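ok posting inputs for the zinc ion job
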Amino acid sequence: MMIYTLSALAVIGFSIFYLFFYRNWRRERRLQQPFPGHWQKMLGAQVPVYNKLPPELRNQLEQHVQLFLAEKSFYGCDGFEVDDTVRVTIAGHACLLIVARDFSDFDEVSSILVYPDAYHVREVESDGIVVSESSQIRAGEASSRGQVVLAWAECEEGAINPSGHHNVILHEFAHQLDYLDGTADGAPPLSGEQARQWQETMTRAYEDLRHSLRHHRKPWLDPYGATEPAEFFAVLTEAFFQRPDHLITEQPAVYKALCEFYRLDPRWGE
Ligand SMILES: [Zn+2]
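and the output
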């Protein structure tokens, strides 16, 4: 019994040491390395918003990208070759979400799987009596187990259209932020008054979007955001970073709540 207790204490002690000291120490050492010049060029070309960021945020983005590339594993699927352009493009967009937040927001993300194009997924569902199978085509997905799957063609499409309606990288990594409090409910980790206000503002806006769609009015957000609250947050995040002027005009309270969560206002230079 004694040996089990001592082993458990050793494991807990090591985990605390790793989480609070060793990992931070290792990150600080990594950040002492200069950010490679060719990565800066890639960020400028593949993550257009990088060129518009104020200097302190640009520096912060580089630091987050440096840690992201050192700590997360990338895997090419269906014969896709993951090169530096792919890694920097994905890391640059993902880290844009947390550029004014702490890198630890992505501690749970361990691996990124990249397909060359939109990919087929076979879904098997059972209600206990009938088993049904369906095939879906996906541009990306995020799992609460720290895995993000992306189709490179869709990533590139989003990267070359920084003011477009879609950016699959921002979308899937927004889901990862949603998972931080353990549930995919469209509410990232917030507390106190901020959590209460978020709930109130987002519920009203979500119902407003669903109401517009039910009455065949032009929606202010991609209709996919009306499928469930988790998708609402991911689609809102895309609109917040890619079309901030549109979002602030349509939904100023939602825009304000997102500014508070992301700790920035993406109307760079205005
Ligand atoms: Zn989604």
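notes: The beta strands are 73-76, 111-115, 119-126, 131-138, 140-142, 147-151. Residues 23 and 49 are 29 Å apart (CA to CA).
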